Amino acid sequence: MSINLKYLIFTISILSIEIFIAVFVHDQFIRPFFGDFLAVIFVYCSLCIFFQNSTKIATISIIIAFCIEFLQYFKFIEITGLIKYKILAVVIGNSFSWLDILAYSFGFAFILLIENFEILRMPWKLQFDANKKR
């Protein structure tokens, strides 16, 4: 198993952004929505350090995000007493929101869009190739 340096750099960058958001940003959009959007991408990039990037890894990433959100719904961190550990309280969170689910879904869609960008460029390639033959 080799380490994918590109995804390691992405992971560290996104983690830095997430920490900055958690510590310094206290608004109604960036922290709650954009932070969750980035969370799915962070998990995806973290997994891609060790595994070949694919739709399967993206799917695993969103499943992890949904599981954590549903743990919040069932007050897992409070029931287990883990709320006293500040870092776990921040990572797991303690309030369920359908907007978080939406943000994770947008993050998932963004991953699929970026990782399959070659498909989006295909019409341009065909048009360019057709012009070249003239």
Entry summary:
The chain has seven helices and no strands. By secondary structure, the chain is an all-alpha fold. The chain has one domain.
Describe the structure.
The protein has 134 residues and is mostly helical. The protein has one domain. Helices cover 77% and strands 0% of the residues. It is built from seven helices and no strands. The longest helix is centred in the N-terminal third of the chain and has 20 residues. It is globular, with a radius of gyration of 18 Å. The model has no long low-confidence stretch (mean pLDDT 87).
Order of helices and strands: HHHHHHH
Poorly predicted parts: none
Largest sheet: none
Task: Determine Rg (CA atoms, Å).
Answer: 18 Å
Helix content: over 70%
Q: Give the mean pLDDT.
A: 87
The total count of helices amounts to 7
The portion of residues forming beta strands comes to under 5%
Report how far the terminal alpha carbons are from each other: 47 Å
What number of structural domains do the residues give? Answer: 1
Described by the principal axes of the CA atoms, the overall outline is: globular
Total number of strands: 0
- The secondary structure category is mainly alpha
Name some characteristics of this structure.
77% helix; globular; 0% strand
Present the secondary structure layout.
Elements: H1 5-24, H2 30-48, H3 55-73, H4 76-79, H5 86-92, H6 98-115, H7 117-132
Helix pairs in contact: 1-2, 2-3, 2-6, 3-6
